[in-house]
Write a sequence for this structure.
């Protein structure tokens, strides 16, 4: 083991700022808001025993500097997306430069975006050659599957976005229309990363994103935070000068490494009270009336208790799978408004009937999952 084991003073904090200040926490049905005062513990990182300092950099793609168009983070719009890849490499390299300047000895990058591009959003040839991209030979969940003790000393997150309801640029949590709660606190994906790595005793030390995410992360005041832009709606921003932003990224990333001992490891108290709240186009009301499911009276929130962070995460991801089944309602609106609507609906109906008859007659087998390309590397969310 690299780290000396030593007893650490552990401090219980308010996970929700409103609860700390004495104001009423957000009254979300089904969520135990009393847990907000003790939902998370903070502790100092373990003392380092040698001069190595390994940093893992998560990157998303909605909180980048210079970026004011949602198409730049969507692979479905290649000409815009290519610009997004340039913004991404620029921000990551500024941060990498700062991390090494501050004393990091190893920096790895992991993809946390999920643009739909089968290749990594970060073009390998554009990355500062001192850093490397984390890869695996099979698909992995970047927030939970790579967490291991003594693998990194600090976590950094670049190009992140605010949570659902925060009115940030492209604000969401995990995916569109989803708001995740743990121990009475509505969390950002940055906090999800912090809780997950908290299990291994590793703190989040630096984050970049818009001004709304800066507000969301006031619960983690030790983070060196760089505001890349000011959100004026979910798809409009006022940009800051990119060179100034990147200069600040370099300075603050270096400071974050130098002040690593002042950062806090964030651990969720267990058992974990978890909840998912949805807004359109996600939906949960189809679960109404299912015995054992704690659905709020409004039909927009399900809560449950889990033994630990991993079980809470897994449960929430499964519920996201249910909630996002409602997305095709938007596709149906598109079809309804399309000039070929009648023939498309007839084809859909015929396909549905044939699927029924084929299954009922034993003629149908599910199509096999596509085989992964030999030698393919996986970079994270992709
Ligand atoms: Zn993203």
């Amino acid at each position: 083991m690299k780290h000396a084991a030593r007893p650490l003073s552990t401090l219980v904090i308010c996970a929700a700022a409103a609860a700390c200040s004495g104001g009423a926490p957000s009254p979300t049905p089904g969520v135990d808001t009393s847990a907000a005062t003790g939902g998370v513990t903070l502790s100092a990182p373990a003392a380092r025993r040698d001069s190595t300092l390994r940093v893992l950099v998560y990157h998303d793609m909605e909180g980048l500097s210079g970026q004011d168009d949602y198409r730049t983070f969507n692979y479905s719009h290649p000409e815009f997306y290519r610009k997004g890849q340039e913004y991404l490499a620029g921000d990551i390299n500024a941060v990498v430069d700062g991390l090494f300047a501050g004393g990091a000895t190893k920096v790895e990058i992991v993809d946390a975006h999920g643009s739909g591009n089968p290749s990594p959003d970060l073009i390998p040839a554009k990355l500062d050659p001192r850093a490397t991209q984390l890869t695996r030979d099979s698909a992995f969940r970047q927030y939970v599957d790579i967490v291991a003790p003594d693998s990194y000393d600090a976590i950094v997150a670049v190009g992140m976005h605010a949570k659902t309801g925060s009115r940030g640029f492209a604000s969401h949590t995990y995916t569109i229309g989803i708001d995740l709660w743990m121990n009475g606190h509505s969390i950002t994906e940055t906090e999800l990363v912090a809780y997950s790595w908290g299990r291994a005793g590793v703190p989040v030390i630096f984050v970049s994103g818009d001004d709304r995410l800066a507000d969301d992360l006031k619960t983690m005041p030790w983070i060196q935070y760089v505001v890349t832009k000011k959100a004026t709606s979910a798809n409009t921003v006022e940009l800051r000068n990119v060179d100034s932003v990147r200069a600040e990224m370099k300075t603050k990333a270096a400071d974050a490494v130098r002040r690593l001992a002042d950062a806090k490891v964030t651990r969720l108290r267990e058992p974990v009270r978890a909840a998912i709240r949805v807004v359109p186009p996600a939906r949960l009301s189809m679960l109404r009336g299912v015995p054992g499911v704690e659905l709020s009276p409004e039909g927009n929130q399900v809560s449950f208790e889990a033994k630990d962070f991993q079980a809470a995460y897994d449960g929430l991801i499964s519920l996201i799978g249910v909630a996002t089944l409602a997305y095709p309602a938007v596709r149906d609106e598109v079809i309804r408004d399309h000039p070929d609507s009648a023939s498309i609906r007839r084809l859909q109906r015929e396909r549905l009937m044939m699927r029924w008859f084929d299954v009922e007659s034993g003629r149908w087998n599910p199509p096999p999952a596509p085989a992964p390309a030999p030698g393919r590397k996986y970079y994270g969310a992709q």
Summary: The chain has two domains: 10-268, 328-358. The helical segments are 17-20, 78-102, 189-198, 211-216, 242-258, 309-323, 328-337, 341-360.
